[in-house]
Fold these 4 entries.
Entry 1:
Amino acid sequence: MIALSNNVYVIGAGETKYGELWDKSLRNLAVEAGLKAIENAGIYSKDINAIYGANGLAGTINEQENIGALIADFSGLSNEGIPSIRVEASTASGAAALREAYLSIKSGEYDVVVVGGVEKMTDIHGSDIIEKMSSILDREWEAFYGATPAAMAAIIARKYMHDFNVEKEALAMVPVNDHLNASKNPDAQYHNKLTLKQAMDATPVAEPLNLMDCSPVSDGAAAVVLASEDFMKRNKKEGIKIIGSAIAQDYLSVGSRDSIYTLKSTHLAAEKAFRRANIKRDDISFVELHDSFSIYALLELEDLGFVEKGKAKELVYDEIKTNGRIPVNPSGGLKAKGDPYGAVGIGQVVEAYLQLNERAGERQIKNAKYALLHNMAGTGTSSVIHILEGY
Amino acid sequence: MTELSRIWRETEYRYNLIGYKCKNCNRTYFPPRDICPYCHRESIGKMEKFKLSGNGEIMSYSIVHESSSAFKRQVPYVMALIKLNEGPVITAQVVDCDPDDVEIGKKVHMAFRKIREDGKNGIIEYGYKFRIN
């Protein structure tokens, strides 16, 4: 037998369109994305060793738990008894599931694993969604008193702007960039471009943040197929290699942290992921950031190590564009591609898969070789980072 | 509707602003926690209830316009992080003022207030908010 590495590859990817998809249910979305990924990978049900499904809020929004069984059943995989479990890490569920699947292959237990993420957020009335979304905070000591995810991001934003003398305009450049990129992404929720003035003048949500600083409520699903090197060689397949994978945690409440504008989980996960990938920040061709609120994109660029704390304003005007030094969110990001909680982290892999295979169409990053994907839970409670290498 | 016990078991802390102090390192915490994140097993059995003064200053804040349904009648309201004099940072509303009067660094003190109602038939929930000095 030939000695093979235990490297893990992405050999197929697919996603639904993101948006307010009134004609599609939770299970419709999960199955659509899963089938696209499986077809794209060119594998069959007999090849699949396990399924990892990511979802954030189905229990509270859709009153449906037992998501692993739901996905396997309606993907037509119940007769084979293929193991299927849900992974939950709030809005970082997607990348957390990806990492569990990656580890399951790395360990030698499995050869082929399907990882999917799904969220169906428009199934309850719009007036109830903020309460459900606020369950990602500390319910008893933050949300109980009226805190929302937007309010906590806004509190962080105000302190950051105050201490580092950052103007609101720097934050507004994040959705402007996201919308420009999403206008070239057929799967994105929004295709309209956004002017800086529109981004600045939108309705306030939680001051200093307005509607354009906040990701929308989205439905959507994404899925990828991971495979071992052994399976790739035997079946003559090519894939995108996962060269770094890391996760780290922080306090649940923002107030418990030493610095409210330092995403410690992001910093720690980035250090680990870069060490494992053995590449430098300058090698990264583009990043997909978890910018559920504009302020987080600035903090993430800093805590990922691309720029010093307080200096992200130097990057957001030009350097984050698709032709800049560190392109951010070629997919359109959470603001414009959309933010279906559990699907986000897997959708980022779909974007990386397209980009690294030079199949991203109009939004293709030139010579894309290394992608950094950053998926974050809540206000920074968990960060999951993956670094992928094209071939 | 929420069962009464869920609210009842937190009332001591919410009504009186009682946190915990680690008798191993003397750090104070709010909300209550059983383990000190600095002392780990050394803190087991050494976490004691500690009454906070309720005095502090505004670390940062937001004026909230879009809220969950329980707070719809209160918008716009001020949600803040308050750094208490004893050290802990607490998430709470700042009330009895024009939102424009709120500033980072302003001194505040605790006030006992109604927080929310659990629908039309549930109980009324109380706790702390803060007022500018």
Note: Chain A has a mean pLDDT of 97.
Entry 2:
Amino acid sequence: MAEKVLMKGNEAIAEAAIQAGCRHYFGYPITPQTEIAAYMAKRMPKIGGTFLQAESEIAAINMVYGVASAGKRVMTSSSSPGISLKSEGLSYLAGADLPALVVNAQRGGPGLGGIQPSQSDYFQATRGGGHGDYHMIVLAPSSVQEMAQLTIRGFELADEYRMTAMILADGTIGQMMEPVSFDFEIKEAPAKPWATTGTKMARPHNVINSLYLNAELLEKTNIERYQKYALIEEKEALAEEYMVEDADIIIAAFGIAARVSKNAVNEARASGIKAGLIRPITLWPFPKAVFAKHADHAKQIISVELSMGQMIEDVQLATQCKVPVSLCYRVGGMIPTPDQVYQAIVEANEKGGK
Amino acid sequence: MATREFLFAGFGGQGLLFSGKVLAYKGLIEDKNVSWLPSYGPEMRGGTANCSVILSDEPVGAPIVLTPEVLVAMNLPSLDKYENTVRKGGIILVDSSLIERKVERTDVDVYYVPATKLADENGAGRLANMILMGKLLSVLDEYNEETVSKALEKCISARHADMLDLNRKAMEIGRNYAE
């Protein structure tokens, strides 16, 4: 096994991207994810890659569009306000069926908000973010090891399905250091016969475009894209289940909120409350089946979020409101304490229930 | 030791994030689960800085230390802010050359080390942080010369290899300091 090293979550993303064969990074600095750009600036020139600090987030995402069109693994990273700026580009990437990896180390919003961690871009990420009918594959790491692992997985999924994969992290996971081992088997990028790499006078032109003036044709491409999304929903949804088999009270939480919640679940178990945790690892596709499976035996589900309640809507949809779902939250850069979550569990256990 | 939570707090530039990293690396080398989380707010610029370190035999849950077992305070605002968060029976290490007041708690073990003064006197000008780390590991009976040395090698880049011995020396000063 590869030796474990201590690394910041942001650095782990950058190193994993390089190991996944990404040789092109475009970004614009913003707290709390600047370590990704810093790492890329240091490493890319040494391995024949491109690090480019663009003049803006919008420029960076369009450079991503260009490299993706040429069939190479490419990424950009930013934090919440910067991702809003990139949203037009995200929609164009979707409309042109281009694979790319985008990292959002979320901070408090709306507006410029703050620089402390947040999960309030959940809607933006899972509903697409930009205009039009589309999705991104959204991966939610909750440890530095997963920052690395899901970055690699993100590149693979993006290539496999020709779409954007987003790492939806937060300031805490980005800034914290934990041991990480780069012991990955990395799938090579598949052949990309659609890429604009020059015809060499041997094939017709490949065209990368998201403009369809023919409404019937645009409808058809949308429907076909959604057939692909249906397949992804069936095959790629992923969640960690922690002590949920017999749980009366189930916490739903991802990322940093899931780590805080795990402490609370352990504390609840120690005091005799049957608590458990479902941690979605993919936020889109949402792991609906896992929630549906446990909706029958749970008395209550508590969605723990660093937002005013965004994922809670997916939990309610996934459980078809068979079980009450409540919200436990902090926002603006604040993080719920394990004790706050524990109190919510105690309260739900006493008076919650169907 | 099941789980031990540390909080290092002081001014930006005192090397608290660095000493926290050495502790975390030592834990990693000793096969423990570890996490290290810095404060990264605007307060870092010229103001207070702190970092949470957790060493555990179990996987680490929340990486934020709210009720530390060990507090290392390198300025007065940090001691004022965190003194009451330390768990009963915990440990507070104070750089007594920078903090004049005494710890008010009576239910914790307190160690006063004039670390900044000791660093100056011993030609280790900026290594008060490592003097405190030496004392801390000795108080915890966790001063393992081999893993300490390996951790320092991991945390000090090749470019600054000349600082290795000075760091080791600073830690020894702390280890041997008796009030």
Note: DSSP finds six helices and six strands in chain B.
Entry 3:
Amino acid sequence: MADAALQDGPRGPKPKKSFSRANIFLYGTLLLVSIYYLLPLYVMIVTSLKGMPEIRMGNVFGPPMEITFEPWVKAWSEACTGINCDGLQRGFWNSVNILIPSLILSISIASVNGYALANWRFKGSETFFTILIIGAFIPYQTMIYPIVIILREIGLMGSLGGLVLVHAVFGMPILTLLFRNYFTSLPEELFKAARVDGAGFWGIYFRIMLPMSLPIFVVAIILQVTGIWNDFLFGVIYTRPATYPMTVQLNNIVNSVQGVREYNVNMAATLLTGIVPLVIYFASGKLFVRGIAAGAVKG
Amino acid sequence: MDAAKRPNKLFRNLNSKIASIPMILTVLVVFVGGTTWTVVHSFTNSRLLPRLDFVGLDQYERLWSSSRWMISIQNLAIYGICSLILTLVIGFALAACLDRKIRGEAVFRTIFLYPFALSFVVTGLAWQWILNPDFGMQSVIRDFGWTSFAFDPLNNPDIVMYGILIAGIWQGSGFIMVVMLAGLRGIDEDIWKAARVDGIPTWKTYVVIIIPMMRPIFVTALVLIASGIIKLYDLVVAQTNGGPGLASEVPAKYVINYMFQAQNLGQGFAASTMMLVSVIIILIPWAYLEFGGKKNG
Amino acid sequence: MKLTTKLLAATCIVSVSAASAVELEVTHWWTSGGEAAAVSKFAEAWNATGNTWLDGAIAGAGGTARPIIISRILGGDPMAATQLNHGRQSEELIEAGLMLDLTEVAEAGGWRDVVNPSSLLDSCTLDGRIYCVPVNIHSWQWLWLSHAAFEQAGIDVPTNWEEYVAAAPALEEAGILPLAMGQQSWQQSGAFGVMAIALAGEEAWRAVHVDRDEDVAGGPEYARVFESAVTARDMASGSNVQDWNQATNMVITGQAAGQIMGDWAQGEFQIAEQVAGEDYSCLPGLGEAAILDTGGDAFYFPVNSDPEVTAAQLELAALMISPEVQVAFNLAKGSLPVRGDIEMSAANACMQKGLEILADGNILPTGDMLFTPDTQTQIEELMAEFWTSSMSAEDAQSRYVSIIAAAD
């Protein structure tokens, strides 16, 4: 189990002395690489705090001489797309409205799927599962048009419900895999004992499996929040301008150049869009790592 | 397994089947149905609206004679090969560094992984800004006195794919590092002890013993990276929108452009079918090993 | 900000007073400064009637917006009205019965008599029925020149393409980019189209675009066009902006000497408070041949099942072409009005030039009306490749010939 393994200590060879040459080299490399990873975040932050005149003169890496929050205010509530000048805030609430139902629907479907696949296999269930997993790798482009038609036929095109459904469908493969692996790893005796007691499919799910699977639910939530929040393609195709998620609105604002490009506003808008997944990531710490590791490495 | 014997086969395990209906529908209607629909229509001359007016392989012939498609494929190949190798190398190297009982492991891990929480749109915009020739890296290095320094990948058709590569690796390599780290943690400490007793140097232990033992992890990482590469779209749209000229076009963008902008659905479907075929070529052997070979997960 | 407040105020008044007010969602891809100012003229006029304009701007030019617009119409969730370039792009949507028939409004408003040139209305017409409202005339054939840039280089502002090309070395010496060019394929192929009309001449252009004559496309007139395109490419090397209005901004600020761009660039000069003839010059047809193509924007109204919305759609259609709205909108956008019967005395020197050419009838249909989007995309691809590589004039021409030969 990958997720359990991360909790154990490192396995690599122990460094000999704390100031050996190898050690300096090791930390040096890590620090150097850290710069590459941190640079964009740093640049985005300092740029978003500068005024336009300073940006035109200075370089992107210099700290702001005069800190201004103007770009943040503008990005959040004043930036224009066409004649709508209400900034990113609308997109933020749209994203929240999209996120919550998508999260609930996709996770409840996937957890039940995973449970059925782990404990109640039926003829063909593994075949469906294999196709489902392959489905995770199909380029979305192959599916865009058929989904337009499916949504039209069920009357959900352009509505919030349609997008929620799309997220549930495309979140299903990885989440199902996650839950299936988790439920498989639980001791089989529990399940057998409950069966002997006469509990049925739903009884076992709600009374035994659900209470035991809190960690995996947290992982699934983290995975889905970042995934759904960051989605761009589905948001742009299956919604309408009034319900555009934040990523689409970000792209709109950045690409609506009126006069000169306001790099500081663009960077503030970019950071605002990234804040939700970043907060989730930093707050959840190890759980996030365990989550994606468990999803990726078959447990 | 449901061991109870019931008269009708269909009703056996009924609740489980009912609970799996969303999954079965998704698989049959969206994945299988949608894909088949697209493949079928790639043999038609559909323009703006889909229609079943078959023209054989015309769309494919045109696709493979289109220079934009060829550029897209080449770009994807450059991006794909570089990104595959670099992500694996960086991911493994970082994981190995972190696995050496260092101080601040959690801090480093957080730094390497945070980009993964950001969307490609955000990633593309951030790097577009850093690589901006007038304000970004290039101008800063020139200000230091090296006035002939030139690094403007996003405006130079010859190296634009590397500009995208820098951003792509930044976003995705931390994730592969975590996968690798999980793999390294799964290796028995006795192996390290044994290697030390035998006096095998550290680097050799990695190459000769550890990496071969981590084969399944590498395969998983490979599949994860490869599937991401084929889907490459948002990043390009946000960072360069295919430019300058056609220099950073990728297949996914070709599909979208032909479906909706050029209003030639047939051509777009033919291109997406080609993408599908390449995914299947990558995936079938892996899926067979992972899920077909052994029955228990 | 002022505009938003005004709009909000208008919306509030409407929602309180008129219970029957209809909210119409209108999608378009007008997001630059001048364009947004022009759209707000429509919105203000519409809100003044007691209805509500729900703005659905989609950034990133037609290429980004069209997929979204089309997938929504096809998906059965249409907007009330949408900008689309008229011409062959929407043929299939009309044939599929997805677009509202505007013939009655058009007859009531006498569009046939007032729309000039009448070809604009023809491209909205299919089988004798009218399906779209042309709102303006745009022509691509303009060269915009910065007076400040030429002054700095110490040379006179050119009056034609030859002089302009000759001025390039002096401009470069003065540290000025001779030609600003956005790195997007539609701009690159647009500039090529301008050179084709101006340098190959009307006859050759018609032979290629209307008759699909491969021999002319491969002939000496077009060879000259491709050679000039190579020259233009050299003049524009070092131009690394993306959006057209960023390129226009380089001309406004004098960083670049000129730009080949349609008359919508006018709106940007206006917003920057530049005066035509003093701060900048415009040369129709590159100063070589005063011919304009008459493309333009049009609004389509997707079929809707709600009769109240349908009535409002027809009302909006009539409003967009009404004289007052036409004047206000086109002055802001820098385009020419579609009506021949209105007073445009407020227009500046550049627009007057355009109006004159229009009155003289030196007009051509636009590429949108003659080529399918598929063919246009292929030409754009060729041009994108041509402008960013060192492709020779001969190679480009031979590929151009094969695209023309395959056009349907």
Note: Residues 220-236 of chain C form the longest helix (17 residues).
Entry 4:
Amino acid sequence: MNEEIKTIWRNFFNWIMGNGPRPENEVIPPEPPPDLPFTQKPKDKYSRFHEATLKERYSQWQEIHGLHIFSMLYSGLSVLTCIVIVSLLLATVAELPPFGDEKNPANNEVIRRYVEHGGHETGAQNIVAGLILDYRAFDTFGESAVLFTAAVSVLMILGISRRNIFPDKASPKAAQTGENYLLRAPPRLHVFKEDDAILRAVASLSIPAIILLGCVVVINGHLTPGGGFSGGAILSTALILCANAYGFERVHKFFNEKTFIVSSSTALMIYALSKGYSFFTGANHFHSIIPKGTIGNILSGGLILPLNICVGLIVAGTLYGFYALFSEGEI
Amino acid sequence: MLEKLLLNHYEAAAVILSGIGLTNLLLQRNLIKKIIGLNIMDTAVYLFLAAKGYVEGRAAPILIENGSGGWLTSSSLYVNPVPAGLVLTGIVVSVSVTAFALALTLKLYEHYGTLNIDEALLKMTHEQEVLEEKITKAEEEVLA
């Protein structure tokens, strides 16, 4: 009994340490040529399976199958995680109050206050505009700042480094002498077709209409659905269409990096100062000189109209800036 | 439970959509597709918020004239205006994050020539090894 256990233990120890008995049908690989260079190792180090220790065998197995099994495990686990999360959330959704019911807890006194007093307190016909640009104007200021910061970050990542790689954009002299030629990045992603008559005709017809629509949406933000964000997005599509039809050089004549930075920063500054003033006077019971106007007129709503215009400028510049940076590498 | 889910089918659809987006984010190896997954999750949040703000049979929160020069300001006429403002915040943040992520992806593609995150990681480790070799060589030269 004792001897048997010892034999089993010895076999197990040999299996772990790699000194196991040689199998009968083993094919011994030819010895590697002895005159190998010193640094070069023979490739099949552990071709004789029984001579490898468990750790070596494991690492060998890992090299061959590890990635495959890991990716399978990863896919399975991620699908499982998602299923678990979705079923938990579905169980939560089943407990929610019914859809569209007026007795939902979300429709509480906050909403009543906003709807019943929002009109004469902010002077805006569009309650959402009064909500985001008067009651919660600092929130919207943060949004505009986030958008501007994102545009500046993209400008930092794409614009300046491209300028370093493309020496001809930074200085025409370097392009003429051909220095730093090897540093050139792959060609531009955006290829401008010189004579696209159809696009130009359509653009010349539609750009004025798009700009008009954008201005209407921005200026009527406190009366009708819309406002600075949606109107700014419409205005930026006009700029993008102009850049596609007539080339980026045409847009550069009236909108370049400097214009973008100046207009966006000015709009943000005006926003911060005017809203700071209005919050200061509103919170401290000072008399505010900004009139509310009558609801429904274009000149009503106090500061909402100028703030909408500021937000529209920031959004239009930023969205066009994203497009220009991604396709051209500069605004 | 299924009855309740059918009662709240917009919210259920939003939750399933966000699950699809999360799976996309985890399983795709292409970075652009990962960003698309993130955007699907954002869209699910907008759908959820819009569904929470809706009230059956009420108008959009824009004041209606009452016919004699005044405005109807009864809160039983309009839907909840707060989720509209929250969705606006969400859209702006989503646009900013997407643009920033795409810019980083573009730089990664310019540097490594691939959008697959595994290949990029392999190239990154290789680059690291080459750099370490260079550093050890330089150190040896300095010592010698």
Note: Chain A has twelve helices and no strands.
